[in-house]
Recover the amino acids of this structure.
């Protein structure tokens, strides 16, 4: 007898959740006591609800709750329970953010395992992006009389197209303060901009055998000791080796005493950049290309802000904002892992949009571009045509 049944698929959301390392998630919940004395909403149900909000584009707690209610029959297959708005709000305000931050770190490490590279060939980008908040967050995130906000600080691997480290702070905290807490990986190349202009930090990186590529401030002089030949006909204007000022403000000794490189580059818009590096051996063009890679982290921030929910927050407390940002990063990583497992959709933005419109549909992720197959009816069934 011919089998006329349609092939069964779980929802697209269910397929995405398969990339979550649930055993480690459970250990994190246990380690941080996140489910201690919980009667209604488990950490897993909270996480699934917030992840649904990120992937579906829900702009409020009410939208998340209503959306999940409309798919209540499928929540069981996701291993989650229905949520109430007040309960979800309380969980976001009180549950340890460390569970979600640690889970995002685990997924970041997963993303790096597939890239087997020599450490000397690894390039990381460091930057931060501002996140605007409203007056309800003023108690912890006020930056000035008019500005209230937070910052997302990231170390980004452009070859893996994924962050490898992330931290959240109030906007008033200086970028260099967070950078000094970032994990150091000796031998790698780190590219960053003027927000990380700190000679003491640079000296620490140089001592740990980091190669650094950044920009000179306009008023920083260089005591030139050697002028290197610049390639003809290109955008490299000059290539020089020298020393930074011996003294800083208030006659403090500059801890960055090693020789550095200054490569002056003309951009397409006519602007001249003074690029600084402690690499005295690479070509000027290689250093210029390394600094140009900073654009990748700008694209990452733009993609996350356009596609996920980190520009509009569903709560105002510091804990809730940190949880929402952590879950947004987890959503980004799950999308990247799911996209890597299929070949039909190459554009990350197109893939994210397809996931959004099909999130609770029973479809195979590698066939999202294919039309849904028509149901195969039994010959004895009556098919009605609606005009």
């Amino acid at each position: 007898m011919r089998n006329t049944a349609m092939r069964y698929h779980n929802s697209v959301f269910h397929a995405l959740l398969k990339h979550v390392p649930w055993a480690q998630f459970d250990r994190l919940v246990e380690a941080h006591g996140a489910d201690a004395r919980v009667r209604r909403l488990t950490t897993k149900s909270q996480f699934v609800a917030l992840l649904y909000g990120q992937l579906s584009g829900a702009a409020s707690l009410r939208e998340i709750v209503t959306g999940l209610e409309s798919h209540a029959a499928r929540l069981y297959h996701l291993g989650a329970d229905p949520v109430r708005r007040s309960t979800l709000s309380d969980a976001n305000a009180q549950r340890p953010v460390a569970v979600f931050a640690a889970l995002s770190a685990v997924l970041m490490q997963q993303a790096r395992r597939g890239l087997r590279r020599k450490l000397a060939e690894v390039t990381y980008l460091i930057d931060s992006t501002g996140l605007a908040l409203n007056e309800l967050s003023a108690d912890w995130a006020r930056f000035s009389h008019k500005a209230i906000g937070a910052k997302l600080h990231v170390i980004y691997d452009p070859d893996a197209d994924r962050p490898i480290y992330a931290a959240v702070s109030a906007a008033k905290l200086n970028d260099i303060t967070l950078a000094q807490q970032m994990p150091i990986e000796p031998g790698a190349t780190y590219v960053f901009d003027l927000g990380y202009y700190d000679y003491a930090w640079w000296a620490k990186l140089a001592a740990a055998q980091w190669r650094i590529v950044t920009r000179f401030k306009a008023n920083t002089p260089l005591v030139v000791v050697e002028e290197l030949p610049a390639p003809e006909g290109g955008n490299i204007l000059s290539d020089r080796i020298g020393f930074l000022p011996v003294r800083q403000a208030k006659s403090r000794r500059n801890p960055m005493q090693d020789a550095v490189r200054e490569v002056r580059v003309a951009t397409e818009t006519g602007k001249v950049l003074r690029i600084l590096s402690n690499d005295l051996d690479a070509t000027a063009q290689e250093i210029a290309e390394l600094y140009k890679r900073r654009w990748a982290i700008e694209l990452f921030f733009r993609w996350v802000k356009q596609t996920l929910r980190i520009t509009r927050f569903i709560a105002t407390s510091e804990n809730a904002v940190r949880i929402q940002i952590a879950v947004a990063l987890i959503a980004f990583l799950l999308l990247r892992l799911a996209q890597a497992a299929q070949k039909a959709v190459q554009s990350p933005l197109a893939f994210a949009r397809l996931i959004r419109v099909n999130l609770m549909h029973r479809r195979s992720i590698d066939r999202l571009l294919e039309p849904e197959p028509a149901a195969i009816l039994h010959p004895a069934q009556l098919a009605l045509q609606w005009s």
